[in-house]
Design brief:
Shape: globular
Helix content: 25-40%
Structural class: alpha/beta
Largest sheet: 4 strands, parallel
Number of helices: 12
Distance between the termini: 23 Å
Radius of gyration: 21 Å
Number of strands: 11
């Protein structure tokens, strides 16, 4: 996913008690809920190596304040409690226990990062606490069989790899692929996505090379991939290594069809540092309207987002894609909570999380919809491709579905 955190943390007041909801639920069925409040918890990185990603939680906090100003949900105000774990799984464990056992939140929302969430997912599921719309990209967060209380949000890296491969083959059916991937869950999703599409042709058509997040450079990996004479290069990487890959490909005068994962292709974090002239032709994917794209300047959804940023998160950058993401994911949560019809027991929250049907929110690209079921914990599986041309990205083609290969 991209970048989320900073230093401060917000703690909500302890609930004075819980009351029965909808006339049938007992008090013990509704932790984190009173007649006037719903407590929601989150851990994120407000400090540490990915502190920039903390802006997502800050944006969500502003959105909840907007909801409260509008009367709340079913007459209840949102008390959003988010803590800094500095992207340290040990701290995530500590803060998650505090949220569930001390703060007594109703559920957890938009928790950041694969390693932090991996440290707590079993604990959360054993306590049957909804663990919703995580800020992660891994395919494993859709594993409804092992983690029925957990759900990701963004299209998974595996879905993205499927989309990249499907487009490349539509342009060159006999394409040979070079794959640079991070040696972790993120990178392995790209391996699996390519295997999904190529099947038994994977070994004969793909040259795959991995790197470690501690590697100071990936120049040798790019040189190795260059010798394969591949037509397509897919970089399943994070932003730092995306910039390195783009620079080295340019230096080698290699001109493959180059795809970079959406979480590593931001203008601010990748393209500008490496130099826009080196990124010409780079392809990535998108599913949210980019507030920095002039094409959306008069769009009603983007205008509402801009007005929200000015009033409720004025210290944030309205053109930062991470803030558009935070606004979008919280918009979907609002739809879910409204769908609960005042019954905010954990069981009902999860039931409705599993029952989102063709949900549209104004900052998703036209045609991109949220769908879930008890056996589909991948809310978003559609994306559109975009190519870096001149000084900006240009979207092209139709919305592509990554699932059901």
């Amino acid at each position: 996913m991209a970048s989320l955190n900073r230093r401060s943390l917000l703690a909500g007041s302890a609930a004075a008690g819980v009351v029965a909801l909808a006339g049938t639920s007992r008090a013990e069925d509704t932790p984190g809920v009173t007649a006037t409040e719903i407590k929601i918890g989150c851990t994120t990185s407000l400090s540490g190596p990915v502190s920039a990603l903390g802006t997502i939680a800050r944006c969500s906090d502003g959105y909840f304040r907007m909801i409260n100003d509008q009367g709340g949900i079913a007459g209840r105000k949102i008390n959003f409690i988010y803590y800094d774990d500095a992207f340290n799984p040990a701290k995530t464990v500590e803060q998650t226990r505090k949220l569930i056992e001390s703060d007594n939140v109703a559920f957890l929302f938009s928790m950041l990062g694969t390693a932090p969430n991996s440290a707590v997912v079993k604990y959360i599921n054993s306590n049957k606490v909804p663990h919703l719309f995580l800020s992660v990209n891994g395919d494993k967060w859709g594993d409804y069989q092992n983690y029925p209380w957990t759900m990701g949000f963004a299209p998974s890296s595996r879905t993205e790899a499927q989309i990249f491969a499907k487009y490349a083959l539509s342009q060159k059916p006999d394409a040979r692929f070079a794959l640079l991937y991070q040696n972790d869950d993120l990178g392995k999703d790209f391996v699996n996505g390519l295997r999904d599409v190529l099947g038994d042709k994977y070994d004969s058509r793909v040259k795959a090379v991995s790197y470690e997040v501690t590697d100071p450079t990936i120049d040798s990996q790019i040189v190795t991939l260059r010798t394969s004479n591949a037509d397509v290069l897919i970089s399943g990487v994070t932003a730092k290594f995306a910039a390195m890959a783009i620079r080295k490909v340019y230096e080698l005068d290699w001109k493959p069809m180059h795809f970079v994962t959406s979480g590593a292709a931001s203008v601010a974090s990748t393209i500008i540092p490496v130099g826009p002239e080196r990124a010409q032709g780079l392809i990535t994917s998108v599913y949210i309207k980019d507030p920095s794209d002039p094409a959306w300047a008069e769009d009603a959804g983007v205008k509402d987002y801009m007005a929200f940023m000015a009033k409720y998160y004025s210290e944030g950058n309205p053109k930062e894609a991470l803030n558009a993401y935070g606004y979008t994911v919280t918009s979907v949560l609002r739809k879910l909570l409204e769908q609960c019809n005042g019954n905010f027991s954990r069981e009902n929250i999860m039931k409705e999380a599993n029952n989102l049907k063709n949900v549209e929110v104004p900052t998703l690209l036209p045609g991109v919809r949220v769908n879930t079921s008890p056996t589909n914990h991948h809310p978003l599986q559609q994306m559109q491709l975009q190519r870096w041309e001149g000084q900006g990205y240009v979207r092209f083609g139709n919305i592509i579905e990554g699932s059901n290969i």
